[in-house]
Amino acid sequence: MPTQLLKAAPVTAALYEELKRKISGFKNQHGRSPKLVTVLVGEDPASQIYVSKKGSTCHALGMAHEDFKLSSNISEGELLLLLDRLNADDSVDGILVQSPLPKQISSQRVYDHIRPDKDVDCFSATNVGLCAQNRALLLPCTPAGIMELLRFYKIAVAGKNALVLGRSDIVGKPMALLLLHADATVTVAHSKTSDLAEHIANSDLVVSAIGRRGVLTGTLPWKSSCTVIDVGIHRIADGRVVGDCEFSEIEQKVAAITPVPGGVGPMTIAWLMANTVKAAYFRKGN
Ligand code: NAP
């Protein structure tokens, strides 16, 4: 059987059709579109691209978007004051503060300052806790987008051995939780994990969020039935964007794999849109 390429495009197309219906329903009921506010601090080029992509997706779906561009010298207090204002503004449904933030600002204090019902990135301690207890309104975008991709391609997770590579608060840990809630048997590996090859050999599903090249190669003992989800994003010397995996080597050895670009990245944005629409309806009581 040829390896299945798990492209995001058909999944986001289906998701966006459904979202457009919900957005127009919201507009009819409440006289305005759901609104996402992005906050960009400083001039990191990658962050600028991510924020602009989020804004253009909002517009394509008929959602409102406002972007606050702040100087990299801004104090944490000033940023928290802006969040107070956005938290209180009834026309704002979702608030996203683009990471990374400059050194003088504590990212976690900022995330924790966003109202949980507007925290569409799901990085606040409250939403992380609700996610851990499997009772969250809003799910973290990258892990939830990956679960949606797996559902769309009918890749079963229950009872399978899932290996999550990486234990960051924004990808690895919540990914492990969502897979656990979906009844997978989950192993989380990190930079101190020994015997990575042994874990790979035992895995039906591998999600890589290590942000490093050269670790996941074709020489590892992949199961031929394995599904590989590559979260990593790397811009390499020739200008191409690639993932953590040596794609051409691993593709030949496994049953299914996500491309980079065109895999996890668009699913993350799609889930952000879904969270914003969900947050908008929730605050209106439905
Ligand atoms: P991060 O905070 O740097 O975390 C990386 C994790 O990988 C850490 O837990 C680290 O272990 C672990 N790790 C490093 N080397 C390893 C190795 N050789 N074997 C196993 N684990 C190893 O990164 P992140 O924020 O989670 O992001 C990871 C990647 O995903 C980055 O490339 C990022 O750009 C990308 N990303 C993509 C999307 C998307 O939408 N596609 C969204 C978010 C992030 P320790 O904890 O021991 O240090």
How would you characterize this protein structure?
With 286 residues, this protein is of the alpha/beta class. The N and C termini lie far apart (45 Å). The chain has helices at 9-30, 45-61, 76-88, 107-113, 125-132, 141-152, 172-181, 196-201, 247-251, 264-283, and strands at 4-5, 35-41, 64-70, 94-97, 161-165, 185-189, 205-208, 227-230, 234-235, 241-242, 256-257. It has two domains: 31-127, Rossmann fold; 141-265, Rossmann fold (3-Layer(aba) Sandwich), CATH 3.40.50. Helix 1 (9-30) runs parallel beside helix 10 (264-283), helix 2 (45-61) packs across helix 10 (264-283) and helix 6 (141-152) crosses helix 10 (264-283). The longest helix is centred in the N-terminal third of the chain and has 22 residues, at 9-30. The protein has ten helices and eleven strands. NADP nicotinamide-adenine-dinucleotide phosphate binds at residues 142, 165-168, 170-172, 189-193, 196, 209-212, 215, 231-233, 264-265, 268.
Instruction: Give me the number of helical elements.
Output: 10
- The CATH H-level superfamily of the largest domain is NAD(P)-binding Rossmann-like Domain
> What is the domain total for the residues?
2
Strand fraction: 15-25%
Q: Level of helix content? A: 40-55%
**What structural class do the secondary elements suggest?**
alpha/beta
The description of the largest β-sheet is:
6 strands, parallel
Shape: globular
Beginning-to-end CA distance, first to last residue: 45 Å
Tell me what the CATH architecture of the largest domain is. Answer: 3-Layer(aba) Sandwich
The chain-level mean pLDDT equals 98
